[in-house]
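Quick illustration, no need to memorize.
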Amino acid sequence: MRQTRPLPDTHPEFSVIEWPGFREYRVENWRLARDGSGRVIRNAIAWTWLDPCLPPLVAFFWPKVSPMISQSVLASLLVSIVIITFMWSRCNQVLYECVLVFPTLGIQLETHRGHPFFEPFFVSRRFIHASTLQDFVIHEGLRRWNVRYFLAAIKRSDHGAISIHVAFEVCRVIFYVGSYF
C-alpha cells in the first residue's frame, strides 16, 4: 500500500492510496483554514462546549425532574428522544468518503460514518459495474450563491435509464485530478 497526497498545499485532505489490484481516492472530512495559517478545520465534531456541560446539568436537574419522568410517559419519551438525537448526531458524522477503482470490474463509492475518535461505525457502499458505468465526471452544483464541485458517476441501467451517483456529496472539496482516472 502506498499513500500519496497529490495536492498537499491546496487540498491535503485528498489522498490516493494504491493497493495491489486497485486504487482508492479518499477525501477526509477536514480542510485547511482559508486565511493561510495552515490550521486544520475539522468538519466532524468530536467535542464541543456543550458536551462537558451536559453531565453537570443533568446531575443538577435530575433529582427535580426524575419524579416527573417516572410518572409521565410523555416526559420520559421526550428525554429519550433528546438523548438518542444527541448520540446519533455524534456517531453519524461523515469521517471520509472514497472511490475505489477496480480496473476491470468497475468502481465502488463508499461513505464512512462514525465518531472521530473511533473506527467508522457505519459504511455505505455502492458498486457500479464497468459495463453499466457511462462516465465519471467532475460536476458542479449551486448552493445559495456558491458553486460546489463534486465527483459523480453516470450509470446506465439495463432498461436505458440514466442515473447519477454522487461520490463526494458531503466533503466540500474542489480538485482537478483528471490525470489520475
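Helices lie at 50-71, 73-91.
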